[in-house]
């Protein structure tokens, strides 16, 4: 068995290239990394979970420890995958700007005729939907990173200041997180900054976002 691998999972309407900054930085730090490509533009959460299963399920069985680093909707996909396969080798999870308690903007987008029929992930991002919590009998650590820069026109119109322009900080928090940090970035670039990379490396290595 190989020792450890970190899986990178991108968010809504993105692909694996969106995680390239973290991928490059983690590999440079000596982490074994696999970045997946999922149908997060038109596929439902269940379809994305199944796609993740097909891409990684055989691979992760070769490792003693499997970490997951996910951005936005990717965190919900990761939770659904871990829940469905009940893996015992999960090491640490870092969820970056994941809307654990849904997104107000998803509700607004759902009011646009045919939008949610075309972009089906919107249905899985509504505030009334519940994420799968691992609070009971959790055997791995969860770190949560939220953004605090609401600078987009849409974000300023519909969201409070304590958001990243797409997801409110209160929604990023989960009841099973072990640690939370808030960084001064927006939803689209929070995972493409050195400060985030350092925090992720620290958490994967030591189970804390702190440098020491």
Q: What's the helix and strand layout?
A:
Layout: E1 2-9, H1 20-28, E2 33-35, H2 45-60, E3 63-71, H3 73-85, E4 90-96, H4 104-110, H5 115-118, E5 141-147, H6 153-158, H7 169-172, E6 179-183, H8 194-206
Parallel strand pairs: 1-2, 1-3, 3-4, 4-5, 5-6
Helix pairs in contact: 2-3
Overview of this structure, please?
- Helix 2 (45-60) packs across helix 3 (73-85).
- The longest helix has 16 residues, at 45-60.
- The protein is α/β, with parallel strands linked by helices and 212 residues long.
- Mean pLDDT is 86; it is low at 111-121.
- The protein has 8 helices and 6 strands.
- A 6-stranded parallel β-sheet has the order 2-1-3-4-5-6, with helices on both faces.
Shape: globular
* Uncertain residue ranges: 111-121
Largest sheet: 6 strands, parallel
User: What's the Cα radius of gyration?
Assistant: 16 Å
- Helix fraction bin: 25-40%
Quaternary form: single chain
Approximately what portion of the residues adopt beta-strand conformation? Answer: 15-25%
Q: Which structural category fits the helices and strands?
A: alpha/beta
Total strands: the figure is: 6
- What order do the helices and strands follow? EHEHEHEHHEHHEH
In order across it, which strands form the biggest sheet?
2-1-3-4-5-6
For the record, give the distance between the C-alpha atoms at the N and C termini, rounded to a whole number. Answer: 30 Å
Mean pLDDT: 86
Q: How many H/I helices? A: 8
């Amino acid at each position: 068995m190989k020792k450890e691998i970190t899986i990178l999972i991108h968010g809504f309407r993105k692909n694996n290239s969106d995680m390239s900054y973290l991928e490059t930085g983690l590999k440079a730090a000596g982490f074994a990394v696999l970045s997946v490509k999922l149908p997060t533009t038109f596929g439902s959460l269940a379809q994305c979970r199944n796609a993740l299963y097909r891409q990684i399920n055989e691979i992760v069985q070769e490792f003693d420890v499997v970490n997951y680093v996910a951005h936005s909707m990717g965190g919900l996909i990761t939770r659904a995958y871990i829940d469905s396969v009940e893996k015992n080798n999960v090491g640490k999870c870092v969820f970056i700007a994941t809307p654990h308690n849904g997104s107000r903007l998803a509700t607004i987008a759902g009011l646009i005729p045919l939008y949610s029929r075309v972009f089906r992930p919107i249905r899985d991002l509504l505030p009334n939907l519940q994420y799968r919590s691992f609070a009971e009998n959790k055997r791995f650590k969860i770190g949560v990173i939220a953004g605090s820069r609401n600078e987009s026109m849409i974000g300023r119109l519909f969201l409070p200041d304590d958001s990243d322009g797409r997801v409110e900080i209160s929604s990023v928090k989960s009841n099973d997180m072990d640690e939370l940090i808030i960084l001064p970035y927006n939803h689209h670039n929070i995972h493409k900054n050195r400060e985030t990379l350092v925090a992720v490396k620290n958490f994967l290595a030591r189970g804390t976002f702190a440098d020491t």
